[in-house]
């Protein structure tokens, strides 16, 4: 959602949706602030958010960190660094291809630019470790040489937190995901992807490899039929949702709410407001 022109595929909030039920405008931050060819790491996110939080609080408002990117949320609220839990096979394959075309020394030189400490420890011919070190940096913005530097525990968070989570039964959730994909196609995800490609954004760019866009690119390039692209997007989104839940369920600070128990979303919002007021 930080990228301009990537609205439908990210379900970016629309301007008309940025108003409370009483008509008050609610500012939303970090939307459409970059072009898709710019990298945006968890370190970049952390830096920007840590500047925004005191600014929002100074206006007498409560900052709300909203979304499903657990790595990014934890980078802000917890005082430690950590390496990604998941292997990015697509990124690894691109780096292997780059090494095949330009040589292993080329990748080692790239590592030297972003993580000289690791580059000094890893032999240029040790392609596996060079790729792993680059993978960690590209995913987190934190060099693998610094990734083990953790504070002792989460209780040291400098923020007073009210951590709320939304969940639903799996069948309900998966049905909603399938409906959302169909809605994105109807709203113009294919046309949005075409427009990005026409502007010169290469399919190999990290932003263009995200959920939805890489599927439409494969359709537009004739790799998949539209039916195949849509079905694979639904499948991959369901898998992503499952990984999200696994990530967040390990955090005991989160108070969970089943959205199926709140058909009236205003009642759910009131419940959230109540617990936030009691907590912080």
Give the helix/strand layout.
Elements: H1 42-58, H2 70-77, H3 89-102, H4 104-114, H5 116-121, H6 127-140, E1 164-167, H7 170-187, H8 189-198, H9 213-220, H10 226-249, E2 255-258, H11 265-279
Parallel strand pairs: 1-2
Helix pairs in contact: 1-2, 3-4, 3-6, 4-6, 7-10, 8-9, 9-10
Strand content: under 5%
Strand segment tally: 2
Q: Structural class, from secondary structure content? A: mainly alpha
H/E topology pattern: HHHHHHEHHHHEH
Mean pLDDT across all amino acids = 89
User: What is the CA-CA span between the terminal residues?
Assistant: 28 Å
* Uncertain residue ranges: 148-155
Outline the structure in words:
- The relative contact order is 0.12.
- The chain is globular and about 60 Å long.
- Mean pLDDT is 89; it is low at 148-155.
- Helix 7 (170-187) packs across helix 10.
- It is mainly alpha-helical.
- Helix content is 52%, strand content 3%.
- Strands 1-2 form a two-stranded parallel ribbon.
- The longest helix is centred in the last third of the chain and has 24 residues, at 226-249.
Q: What keywords describe this structure?
A:
2 strands, 280 residues, 11 helices, globular, mainly alpha, two-stranded parallel sheet
Question: Can I get a quick summary?
Answer:
The protein has 280 residues and is mostly helical.
């Amino acid at each position: 959602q930080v990228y301009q022109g990537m609205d439908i595929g990210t379900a970016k909030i629309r301007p008309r949706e940025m108003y409370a039920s009483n008509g008050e405008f609610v500012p939303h931050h970090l939307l459409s602030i970059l072009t898709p060819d710019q990298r945006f790491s968890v370190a970049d996110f952390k830096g920007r958010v840590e500047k925004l939080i005191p600014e929002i609080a100074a206006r007498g408002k409560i900052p709300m960190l909203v979304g499903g990117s657990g790595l990014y949320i934890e980078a802000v609220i917890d005082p430690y660094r950590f390496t990604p839990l998941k292997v990015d096979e697509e990124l690894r394959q691109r780096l292997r291809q780059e090494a095949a075309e330009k040589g292993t020394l080329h990748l080692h030189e790239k590592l030297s630019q972003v993580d000289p400490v690791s580059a000094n420890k890893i032999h240029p011919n040790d392609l596996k470790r060079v790729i792993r070190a680059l993978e960690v940096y590209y995913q987190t913005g934190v060099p693998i040489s610094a990734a083990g530097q953790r504070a002792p525990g989460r209780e040291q968070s400098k923020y007073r937190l009210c951590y709320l989570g939304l969940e639903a039964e799996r069948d309900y959730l998966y049905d909603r995901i399938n409906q959302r994909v169909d809605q994105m196609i109807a709203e113009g995800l294919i046309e949005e992807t075409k427009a990005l490609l026409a502007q010169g954004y290469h399919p190999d760019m990290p932003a263009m490899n995200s959920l939805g866009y890489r599927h439409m690119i494969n359709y537009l390039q004739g790799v998949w039929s539209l039916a195949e692209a849509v079905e694979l997007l639904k499948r991959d989104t369901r898998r992503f949702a499952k990984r999200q839940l696994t990530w967040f369920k390990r955090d005991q600070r989160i108070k969970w709410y089943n959205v199926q128990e709140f058909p009236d979303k205003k009642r759910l919002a009131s419940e959230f407001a109540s617990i936030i007021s009691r907590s912080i």
